[in-house]
C-alpha cells in the first residue's frame, strides 16, 4: 500500500541527501545519469556534450554515465574515481546526490559521500549477485548510521527480467544488511541502461509492484529536525574588532552542529569546563534570541572567559563528558597501515589534538561479520575497532547520538594525509571489551 507525500508531510522544499555505491561496472553512474535525464534535470548543452563524447567513442546512443564521470581519467577508463556531486529537483523534492566509486582502492570515497547521506543506493549486477564489495558498502552504510538503504538490482535486462534472480539477491542482501543493523532496506529491480523502474515503471517486470527508484527517493520519509538533539557549537573563530564602534566586542563564531541555543541560557565551554550564560546571539549581523542547527552564528557570553578555536559551547544541563580515552569503530582510508602505537593527529569538530593508537581490539571480516581479534594493524579499506589516547581531553558524543560531534578523523602529522574516519562508541560490530594484560606506561602525555 503506497503512502502519499501529503501523508508523509513532504513539501516542495524537502531535501534528501543520498549516495550511490556498488562494485565496478554495476552501473552507478548510468543510474544517476538516467535519473537526471529522465527527470528532465539535464541542461541541453550538458546533454549535447555527452552526445559528442559518446559519438567520439563510437557509441550510437548517449552514454548517460558521462553526466557524472567528470574527470578525464574517468571518461577514458569508463569508471568512477572521485565522488561526483549532483544537484537536481522534482516537483516533490530537492536532491543532493553523491555518486561514489566502485573500485576497492577508492572505497574511502564512499565514506566521504555517505557520511552526510540520509539514504544510500547500493547497486548489484543481477548477473553477479552480492559480492565482497557489496558487503563492504553495506557495512559502511550501517557504520555511518545511514537510515535508509535501497538495493538496486541492476541489469535485469541481461538476465531476462527473471523474478527468481531478483528475489534471491534481495533475500541474501537483506539478511546481511539486517544483521549489520540497517533499519530499512528497499529492494528494486532495475535496468539503468534502458530505464526500467528508474523513473518510469517497467513493462518488462509486471511481477514487481513496488516503487521506482525516483518514486522511492521522492517519498521516503527523512527528518532534518536536529533542533531537539544535544546542542553543540564548535568554535571556529573568535571575533574581536577592537574598533571605535565595537571596542569591547568579543564573539565566538561557528556553525551550530546540533540543537538550539537561547539568549540567557547557561552554557559550559569545553574542555575547560568554565560556565557562563549567553548574553547575545548575532545571526547575519542582526541580534536574535534563538539559533538552531546549521545556522552560522556568533555567540556572546556574559563573562570574559578564555575561549578559543576548537572549544565547544554546550548547554550546562546537557554537557558531554570529556575524555582522553576514545573508543571507536573506524574505516581506514589511507594506503599506509594504521598500527598499534601509531602517533597521529585527531581532528574532532574544529579541534585538533595529538593522539596515539593504544590498541586495535578487532578487525571486521566482511564475509561472515566475524571479528578478527587484535590484528595489530588496519590496512586500506579495513573496518575495525580502535582505542585512542589523546594528549588533551575531548568532549565527544556517541556517534549513535550525533553524527557531527560523534565523528572524527585521524591525520598523519608528517604530511597531513587523512588516515582514518572514526565513529565514537558502539557500532553494528562492537567487540567484547578486551582486557589489557599489561599496562602500557610508555605514554608521554
The mean pLDDT is 83
User: What characteristic shape results from the CA principal axes?
Assistant: globular
Largest sheet geometry:
8 strands, antiparallel
Unreliable sequence segments:
1-12, 70-81, 429-445
Count the E strands: 25
Question: How would you portray this structure in words?
Answer:
The chain has helices spanning 5-8, 28-38, 44-56, 72-77, 107-114, 132-143, 163-180, 213-219, and strands at residues 15-22, 84-90, 93-99, 119-125, 148-154, 185-189, 233-234, 237-239, 251-255, 260-262, 266-270, 274-283, 286-288, 290-292, 296-301, 312-315, 322-332, 338-339, 343-348, 351-364, 371-373, 377-378, 383-395, 407-411, 418-424. It is built from eight helices and 25 strands. The radius of gyration is 24 Å and the shape is globular. The strands form five sheets. Strands 7, 8, 9, 11, 12, 13, 15 and 16 form an eight-stranded antiparallel beta sheet that branches. A six-stranded mixed beta sheet has the order 2-3-1-4-5-6, sandwiched between helices. Helices cover 18% and strands 33% of the residues. The longest helix has 18 residues, at 163-180. Helix 6 packs across helix 7. With 445 residues, it is α+β, with helices and mostly antiparallel strands. The termini are far apart.
